[in-house]
Structures are given as structure tokens and as C-alpha cells.
Design goal:
The chain has about 220 residues and is of the alpha+beta class. Helices cover about 15% and strands about 40% of the residues. Strands 1, 2, 5, 8, 9 and 10 form a six-stranded mixed β-sheet that branches.
């Protein structure tokens, strides 16, 4: 029975890989290429930032996924991938159009939920920021988080919970429920893999390891299990 389940799992994975495709496009506004626009997938892990020509490219895209673009601080542009492969996106004032399928599609923008400083940092917020470093994400969105010099390198983030008697130290990182001994978040998980980040400033449930706070990270794979 276990062998049969394993075979079925492999077949399903193979079908998903066969469906995965590359998606390329250009983002325009008033006919002009838009650079530094964050583009990402709702389900998948692929993300990109448009170049000076307004172009982006994503790989391993599934038809059922949703392409998301950060249009402004207040709005995102979202569209189901479907059979789209090479598209041109024209941004308007209240909606946008997508060319490249069987017909031109017009879609209204989606309002971006306003995030309060110190609340949970979601995948969409991280992707919208365009940041490629987990440490940078934490420093931007977590009050009191900063970089400190540790062993001569300014690479670690510290979240000030209780003061540690041992001096400046990074917070404890807990990824999908498992405490990690590595003190640099960027060595533990990639930005595009994160589903959610939250912070436990007290950290008492983790003992001395949580003296400088606990950064709790849920990954896309962990969140889907």
C-alpha cells in the first residue's frame, strides 16, 4: 500500500512539473516601461523585479497560480496565469489590461490591506517590498530590530526583548516550529519561501535562547502542510 501511495505521489509530481511553464512579460504605464516593479506568484515561490525595460521573467509557473504585481502603496494588480506565457501589461488609473492571451483582458486593481507596524508580516508584504534579504525585511517591519556588530561582522539582526547578560546577540529563529541554532536568518530561509513572519518579544517559553526575542517564520511549504 505504501509503495502504491509513493508511486501515485511521483506521478502527481510529474504531472505538476509537466504543467509548469515560463512566464515573461513587460509592464507599461502610458506606453512607458515601468522599472523596479515587484512581481510574484501567490502559490509558487518565483518572484522578480522589472528591469529598466519593464521586463520580467518567472519560471516554474503553474496555470492555477495568480500573478501579482505591486502597482502602488495602495494597489496590487492580480491575474490568474492560465495559459498566459508572454504578456504585455498596461497600467491605467483604475484598472489594467493584459495582452498575450486569446483576447485582451481588463482587470480592476486590488486594494492592499494596510499593515500596522509590528503585526505579522505576510508573504505578499514581503514580495511587495522587493527585498531579497530576510534580515532587511525584519529590520524594516519589526520595531526595535537592527543590525549589530557580532564577531566583527555587521550581519545579524537583533530584536530587543529582554537584555542578554552575554551582550548583543541575534534573536532565536523558529522555522515551521523548529528552533534553529543559526544566528543569521538569511542562512536559514530564502525570502521567497516565507509565508509569514511574527515576533515573540518575551521568548520565555524558549528559555535563555529566547532572551533577545524569537522570530517565528512559517514557510510556504510548512504552511501548506
Amino acid at each position: 500500500m505504501k509503495k502504491l501511495i509513493g508511486i501515485i505521489g511521483i506521478l502527481l509530481l510529474g504531472c505538476q512539473l509537466m504543467q509548469a511553464q515560463d512566464l515573461t512579460g513587460i509592464i507599461l504605464k502610458d506606453g512607458k516601461p515601468q522599472k523596479n516593479v515587484s512581481v510574484w506568484l501567490k502559490i509558487g515561490k518565483a518572484s522578480a523585479i522589472t528591469d529598466k525595460s519593464g521586463h520580467f521573467a518567472l519560471s516554474g509557473v503553474l496555470p492555477e497560480d495568480t500573478l501579482q504585481m505591486s502597482v502602488s502603496a495602495k494597489y496590487d494588480a492580480k491575474i490568474v496565469v492560465g495559459d498566459l506565457k508572454n504578456i504585455t501589461i498596461n497600467l491605467g488609473k483604475e484598472d489594467f489590461t493584459v495582452e498575450g492571451g486569446l483576447e485582451e483582458i481588463k482587470v480592476s486593481y486590488t486594494p492592499v490591506p494596510q499593515m500596522k507596524r509590528g503585526s505579522k508580516i505576510t508573504h505578499d508584504v514581503i514580495m511587495r517590498s522587493g527585498m531579497k534579504s530576510v534580515n532587511d525585511v525584519i529590520r524594516r517591519f519589526v520595531p526595535g530590530a537592527q543590525e549589530v556588530m557580532v564577531d566583527g561582522a555587521k550581519v545579524l539582526c537583533i530584536v530587543r526583548g529582554r537584555n542578554s547578560m552575554r551582550g548583543p546577540e541575534p534573536p532565536l529563529y523558529v522555522v515551521d516550529g523548529i528552533p534553529n541554532s543559526v544566528g543569521n536568518a538569511d542562512e536559514i530561509v530564502a525570502v521567497e519561501d516565507i509565508a509569514e513572519i511574527s515576533v515573540d518579544r518575551d521568548g520565555t517559553s524558549y528559555g535563555a535562547r529566547g532572551a533577545n526575542g524569537v522570530v517565528i517564520i512559517k514557510t510556504l511549504n510548512g504552511a501548506s502542510q
